[in-house]
Amino acid sequence: MQKPIIILNYKTYLESSGDKGRQLTWDARDVMQETGIRIIVCPQTPELFHHKGYGIEVFAQHVDPIEPGSHTGHVLPQSLQFCGVTGSLINHSEDRRPLEEIKKCVEVLRKHGMTSVVCAESIEKVKEVSQFKPDYVAIEPPELIGSGIPVSKADPGIVRNSVKAVTDPNVKVLCGAGISKGEDVKAALELGTVGVLLASGVVKAKDPKAALRDLVTY
């Protein structure tokens, strides 16, 4: 079985903020080096610079499809790059965006050589956003996010059919929502995805480093 990609979303939990967030990034880096599994962390935007130079890939939780100029309060792709960021989540269930904006975000990230991870809540949405040719599409039924019930178990069909819905071989599918254990990662891979996108299963764990190790041991 191929090695999975693990994308860890810090959201805005206190457990992944400040010094705790930086420790979480160190822990993820350690597990990545121990196992050879690709792990990517997504800290909060104001803290991104503090996670630069840890020897692990850092993605943003959000980006705006803008170029330098008068865009007060927006997130400029080049500013993310100054912080060592190499990609971004787009359209997470907690930050939904119109289709046209999703398309523009994918395009602006591609223009600057950055990785795009578009979240989608249904098979139909997977079909729609995959046409924009992002690097990854993450299938995440919103009712399962943070539930501890992995979509790969609750509704394996939606994962399997999401993979089938993507016709471009350069667009890879990730499994999100409820992921917390190594067996969830294994199930996601068996259904045809290349990895997982998760948050609370690690961030809220009593021992996040142990939780990460469990994710990549199956």
Summarize the structure.
Keywords: Cytoplasm, Gluconeogenesis, Glycolysis, Isomerase. The protein is α/β, with parallel strands linked by helices and about 220 residues long.
How does this structure look, described?
Helix 1 (18-35) packs parallel to helix 9 and helix 4 runs parallel beside helix 6 (156-165). The protein contains nine helices and eight strands. It has helices at residues 18-35, 77-82, 99-111, 123-130, 151-154, 156-165, 182-190, 200-203, 208-215; strands at 5-9, 38-42, 57-60, 87-90, 115-120, 136-139, 172-176, 195-198. Strand 1 (5-9), helix 1 (18-35) and strand 2 (38-42) form a beta-alpha-beta unit. The chain has an eight-stranded parallel beta barrel with strand order 1-2-3-4-5-6-7-8, surrounded by five helices. It has one domain (5-215): Alpha-Beta Barrel (TIM Barrel). The mean pLDDT is 93. It is globular. The chain is of the alpha/beta class and 218 residues long.
CATH topology: TIM Barrel
Structural class of the helix and strand makeup? alpha/beta
Number of domains: 1
Roughly how much helix do the residues carry, as a percent range? Answer: 25-40%
> What percent of residues are in strands?
15-25%
Q: What does the main sheet amount to?
A: 8 strands, parallel, barrel
Tally of separate helices: 9
Widest sheet: strand order? 1-2-3-4-5-6-7-8
| Low-pLDDT residue spans | none
